[in-house]
Write a structure and sequence with these properties.
Elements: E1 4-9, H1 20-24, H2 31-44, E2 48-51, H3 60-69, E3 75-80, H4 87-101, E4 105-109, H5 115-119, H6 127-146, E5 151-154, E6 159-163, E7 176-179, H7 183-192, E8 195-199, H8 203-216, E9 224-229, E10 232-233, H9 237-254, H10 269-280, E11 283-284, E12 288-289, H11 291-296, E13 304-307, H12 309-320, E14 326-329, H13 334-361
Parallel strand pairs: 1-2, 1-14, 2-3, 3-4, 4-7, 7-8, 8-9, 9-14, 10-13
Antiparallel strand pairs: 5-6, 11-12, 12-13
Helix pairs in contact: 2-3, 2-13, 4-6, 6-7, 7-8, 12-13
Length: 362
């Protein structure tokens, strides 16, 4: 089966190596950069780009629509938090963007791990309640997208009467991507997601997570899986490791005298897992490096694959062999790394997938 590459769109060219200030200040949105960044992903061979969301950042719907208008093939994966927009309205918004983009819209449903971040937008629900709400949200969302007749729904969080959409997506349905490592997240993802999104954990742990989600899925459902990495590549392995440790030095320098915030990681099971792996070993398997995760508190996808393009492609194929068909990669030099990935890494993985699948069918 083919593999999908997912990138990530920001409104500025910054990452952890540039310091917390560069990561959070996005009030001066540069349309030219967003346009160039989206087009660079498309030219590099990415299939889809994630547009994230948080309580103080740009609106993901607007950024996704702008990036879609600037590209021809690239799909937009728009992060959406249940609870702020009614699922009926969100469904019509997604369908509208899907039609305007020619069938290039999907949603990343983010229930939310940080109570503090959610409270900034007035959401004070508990974590367990947020997952129950997400379950209802996606039930209604799907029905609006798919139902050919008006429908009623009555639940704990949502109640609609005669809900219906006159418009239909170009795609058979709007794809749903979903992440989370807690018990509530696994249940919702197994029930609703087209693709369950995992952070870059060691191979054995990734297999455990995949098996657990598949076991929790209702009869007849087999969700796909994505894994997120931060590839650090160079012509030689030694150069790649030198670059990795240079990035780590920059991160640590920016964080001198600043305690790592645990507001998000304390609640996020995925972050707790990454930090536990980082404490166990600096490098897992062939080249899964935990250095940046440990230094930043693992508040996001922060584990790296370090090596030559060939070595990193080989490591990605180990996850492909576990059943992963969606790979989210982003660099520490966002725009520059997108271009670099497109030169060798992405073509190498596609070639390896073609060989692997040809061997299985022979």
């Amino acid at each position: 089966m083919p593999v999908e590459f997912i990138g990530m769109i920001r409104c500025n060219d910054a990452s952890e190596i540039d310091g917390a200030h560069a990561l959070t200040v996005e009030d001066e949105i540069d349309p030219g950069f967003v346009r160039a960044f989206a087009r660079a992903h498309e030219a590099a061979g990415f299939d889809r780009v994630l547009i994230g969301t948080h309580s103080t950042g740009p609106d993901a719907w607007a950024v996704g629509g702008f990036a879609a208008a600037a590209t021809e093939r690239l799909h937009m994966l728009i992060a959406q938090r249940p609870g702020f927009i009614a699922p009926t309205i969100a469904a019509r918004a997604a369908i509208t963007q899907d039609r305007l983009s020619g069938g290039r819209i999907s949603l990343n449903i983010v229930s939310g791990a940080s109570d503090a971040d959610l409270a900034r937008d007035g959401d004070r629900t508990t974590k367990d309640a947020r997952y129950r709400r997400t379950d209802e949200y996606l039930t209604v969302f799907r029905q609006v997208c798919d139902s050919e007749t008006p429908f009623d729904f009555a639940g704990e969080f949502y109640s609609v009467t005669g809900a219906f959409s006159d418009i239909r997506p170009v795609q058979p349905s709007i794809p749903i991507y979903f992440g989370g490592a807690s018990g509530g997240a696994i249940a919702v993802g197994a029930k609703h997601a087209d693709v369950c999104m995992l952070w870059g954990e060691p191979l054995a742990a990734t297999k455990e997570r995949i098996d657990g989600i598949l076991a929790a899925a209702p009869a007849g459902r087999t969700p796909g899986f994505s894994v997120s990495f931060r590839p650090i590549i160079a012509p030689t392995e030694a150069e790649a490791w030198d670059l990795a440790h240079h990035y780590l030095d920059l991160v640590k320098r920016h964080r001198e005298g600043i305690a790592i915030s645990t507001a998000t990681t304390a609640a996020a099971v995925g972050s707790q897992r990454l930090l536990a792996f980082a404490q166990a070993a600096d490098v897992h398997d062939k080249r899964l490096w935990m250095g940046i995760a440990a230094a930043t508190g693992a508040g996001g996808n922060s584990t790296a694959l370090v090596g030559t393009p060939e070595q990193v492609a080989d490591a990605i194929m180990d996850y492909y062999d576990l059943g992963v068909r969606h790979i989210l990669i982003r660099g520490f030099q966002p725009l520059e790394d997108v271009v670099e990935y497109g030169k060798e890494l992405i073509p190498l993985v596609h070639a390896a997938v073609a060989r692997r699948d040809a061997g299985r069918s022979a």
